[in-house]
Amino acid sequence: MKKYCPQCDKEQELTRITKVETYPVKGENITITANVQVCSCCETEIWDSELDDDNLRKAYNKYREKHDLLTPDQIKQIRNQYGLSQGSFAKILGVGEKTITRYENGSIQDEAQNNLILLVSDPLN
To answer: CA separation (Å) from 111 to 26, 36, 49, 115, 117?
Structure first.
């Protein structure tokens, strides 16, 4: 794929490489193996929104794993096990509907919210 390289000042072929990058997540530095695109000619990194989003998701998931937090898919699965809308699930948890939407779309919940969602995942609770 060709894209404009500001260093070369013209369209160049891009190469995808992996490199170690550190992202700040909730005040903590999280290091991942990131995918980035570089100019094949001068090796300048060229920003790509899809790769950047994917790298951020990796960093968020690594943070979740490190802190034993539920993933967005797990939260959605818990909500769906009861056949609830996001609004109904939010009312049960005592949070706003947009909060559940954000969690299911990738925002990281705090530990207290995570524990509350884990509690309601068990039908006996």
So the answer is: 12, 31, 29, 6, 10
* Full pLDDT tens readout for the chain, 125 residues: 899 999 999 999 999 999 999 999 999 999 999 999 999 999 999 999 999 999 999 999 999 999 999 999 999 999 999 999 999 999 999 999 999 999 999 999 999 999 999 999 988 88
Alpha-carbon distance values, 13 to 3, 18, 37, 54, 77 (Å): 7, 17, 10, 21, 41
Which structure tokens are listed for 117? 């969602």
Q: 28 CB contacts (<8 Å, ≥6 apart)?
A: 63
d(CA 42, CA 87): 51
The tokens of 42 are what? Answer: 């001068």
C-alpha distance from residue 104 to each of 58, 67, 92, 99 (Å):
15, 17, 16, 9
Tokens 């006996």 correspond to 124
Q: Strand, coil or helix: what is 87?
A: helix
Coil, strand or helix: which one is 22?
strand
| C-alpha atoms less than 13 angstroms from C-alpha of 80 in its C-beta half-sphere | 7
